[in-house]
Amino acid sequence: MDFFHFTFYTLMLLVITGGIVGFLLALTGGGGSIVCVPLLLYMVQIPDTHLVIGTSAMSVAVSALLNLFAHAAKGNVRWRTGIVVSLVAVAGTLAGSQMGKITDGRYLTLPFALLMLIVAGLTLKKNHRAGNGLASPDATFHPAIVWPSVLALGAVAGFLGIGGGFLVVPALLWFFRFSLLEAVATSLVVVSAMGLSTSASYALSGKVSLVITCWLIVGGVLGGVVGVALTERLKKREDIIRVLYAAMLLVLALYMLFKSL
Question: Which domain of life is it from (predicted)?
């Protein structure tokens, strides 16, 4: 495929992919790259796994930033925690992305799909430790558990080239007792930081397409607007968000497993 001369059909697929990514980031704080990567590989049919990962990380980071501004305007973001978590996670992301670049792309899709299955299962399991929005912003676990976990989270995100929002949201719920809405909004700070660091690493190796990124962002803006609006409507119906998100992850994971086996 010539990445600089797309057919109208391919452009529409890119915009649709970006729209799904932006929608999920705004609605759940996650699901960006973990959905973007299989869609680019199998729906848009871009053959280079590393190019897909690098480009996906860039577009998800930008979409996360745009959705972050929307959530910030509504006062949902816990900035102090988000910035500190971002700094620690990015250190892991940079190390993980270096390992990902030297790994054959064929061997990245299987762990990617397995991780999606795990996340789908965890998403369906109701988190009883989540706070009610009035909980203390301080960690409820010992720092010796919290910060190595955040570092490892960043390393996994960097290795697989994902924004990591679906990992960050549970971490904010479990470790910091955020409400789901606060966790979703604050996770966008971390997702944008990790996505930018991962994409920068891949860009240095020539594995980021700015053209594809631009079209994904166009869709991401449109999807993000819908996602933020729906989040406000469903903030008291968290189970709906959880089930929809898990169902989509399950379908995509099974398809990736089918294609990679």
Answer: Bacteria
Q: Which of 174, 199, 172 is nearest to 65 (CA)?
A: 199
* Residue 218 near residue 18 (C-beta atoms within 8 A): yes
Nearest-angstrom CA–CA distance, 256 and 17: 16
* Distance, CA of 154 to CA of 242 (rounded, Å): 23
pLDDT tens by residue, 141-196: 778 888 999 999 999 888 887 777 777 888 888 888 888 788 888 998 998 999 89
pLDDT exceeding 90 applies to what percent of the chain? 20
Assess contact for 27 and 182: CB atoms under 8 A: no
Q: Where are the alpha helices (DSSP H) in the chain?
A: 8-28, 32-38, 49-73, 79-101, 109-124, 143-160, 165-176, 180-203, 210-234, 238-260
Residue 204: partners with Cβ closer than 8 Å, 6 or more residues away: none
Q: Which residue has the tokens 């995100």?
A: 157
Between CA 84 and CA 75 the distance in angstroms is 18
Select from 5, 118, 113, 4 the least CA-distant residue to 49. Answer: 113
Q: Taking the complete model, does pTM exceed 0.70, yes or no?
A: yes
| Angle formed at CA 9 by CA 113 and CA 53, multiple of 5 degrees | 30
Angstrom distance (rounded) from CA 209 to CA 202: 10
Q: How far is CA 218 from the centre of its chain?
A: 17
pLDDT tens digits, residue range 84-114?
999 999 999 999 988 888 888 777 778 878 8
